[in-house]
Every structure is written in structure tokens, then in C-alpha cells.
Write a structure and sequence with these properties.
Distance between the termini: 5 Å
Radius of gyration: 16 Å
Order of helices and strands: EHEHEHEHEEH
Helix content: 25-40%
Structural class: alpha/beta
Largest sheet: 6 strands, parallel
Strand content: 15-25%
């Protein structure tokens, strides 16, 4: 735990859905709103990542400063590398992780067991208009993160379902209870860094 809670830190934030008006974006908005003033969220944009193919590496795997990575993967690499922790908000697509998010994690998981995610603290939330709240995607995501030797933050799962996942007029979650659950996870996560 940090000795001075006012020490500035950054968090890398992944929004698993690419829809800017979706419930994942609303949840990410509420994540950011719950952050203490000394924490700066930095969005990880993976919308332009090529499909993962080892042949696309530009140099030896694991080159210093991500020199082996194509743009925009390299930019995301730096965001994650410099962040004190990572927050991932995921929806559930066909009982699993959205393809774009999984592709981003595949890129950032190399070299195996020594990637930018190795040892990195990660908080996970899921959200879905369905009755499950994305719980299956959250479980699958935690399995993937385990394979990347990331440190998944141990906290009661935040899986927002149905009306709890609705978007409010301010761009965040409409439901006050959902915002409180998100804030509880985020604030505990930040305090653990």
C-alpha cells in the first residue's frame, strides 16, 4: 500500500466493447468518476490493433521499449507499462470475452510470462443487459489474465445485469446502487496499489 495517498498514479483502463454509447462505456465512465483526485485514468485504445499474428512482430519478441510491436499496439504497451494498475470493463459476447479485447490481451501478453502484464495488478468488472451481467465473460477474462501472470484483484465480483447496467443521462450508469458497487471496487483497488 502507498504511504501517501496523494502520490499521483495512473491507471490503464480497457473498455471491452468498442461501442461509445454502450453499457461498457457507461461503466467505464462510472469507474473514472469514482477515482480519487490523485489517480489519472488513461484509456487503452485497441480499436486499431491488427489481428494477433506472431509474424507481425517488427523485431525480436520482447524488444526493449516495445520496439517489436506495431502501432497502435506499442502505444498501448506504454500505457500499461507505466500504469500502477489496470481496470478492465468487459461485456459478454456469446458467453465469452469480446474478440477485440481478447486480441488486445493476446498482443500485450508477449513474451509469455514476461509481458507488460506480468505481475501487474488488474481489477475486472463485467456488464451486460442480460440477466447474468457478463459473469461468464468475467470468469473467462480472469482465466486469461491468470495465463498472463497478472495479479487479479481479489474482491467480490461486480457483474452488472439488466437495469443495473443501464446508461444514465450523464454518460455513466443510471442506477445509484450500481455506481456504488463500482466505486467500492475501484476505491479498494486504488488503496491496494
Amino acid at each position: 500500500m502507498r504511504e501517501a495517498m496523494s502520490t499521483p498514479i495512473t491507471l490503464a483502463v480497457f473498455t471491452g466493447s468498442l461501442r461509445p454509447d454502450g453499457v461498457s462505456a457507461a461503466t467505464t465512465h462510472s469507474v473514472k468518476a469514482a477515482l480519487p483526485a490523485h489517480v489519472t485514468p488513461v484509456d487503452v485504445d485497441f480499436s486499431g490493433f491488427p489481428l494477433y499474428d506472431p509474424r507481425l512482430h517488427l523485431g525480436p519478441l520482447g524488444s526493449p521499449d516495445g520496439a517489436d510491436l506495431p502501432e497502435p499496439v506499442r502505444r498501448a504497451y506504454f500505457v500499461v507499462r507505466e500504469a500502477a494498475g489496470v481496470v478492465i470493463v468487459t461485456p459478454e459476447y456469446n458467453y465469452g470475452i469480446p474478440g477485440g479485447l481478447k486480441n488486445a490481451l493476446d498482443w500485450l501478453s508477449r513474451p509469455g510470462f514476461k509481458s507488460v502484464f506480468a505481475g501487474k495488478r488488474v481489477a475486472v468488472l463485467s456488464v451486460s443487459p442480460s440477466v447474468t451481467g457478463g459473469v461468464r465473460a468475467q470468469g473467462a477474462l480472469k482465466t486469461v489474465l491468470g495465463g498472463m501472470v497478472a495479479q487479479v484483484f481479489p474482491f467480490p465480483e461486480v457483474c452488472l445485469a439488466g437495469a443495473l447496467a443501464a446508461r444514465g443521462d450523464d454518460g455513466g450508469l443510471a442506477d445509484a446502487g450500481s455506481r456504488e458497487r463500482v466505486a467500492g471496487l475501484v476505491q479498494a483497488f486504488v488503496a491496494s496499489l
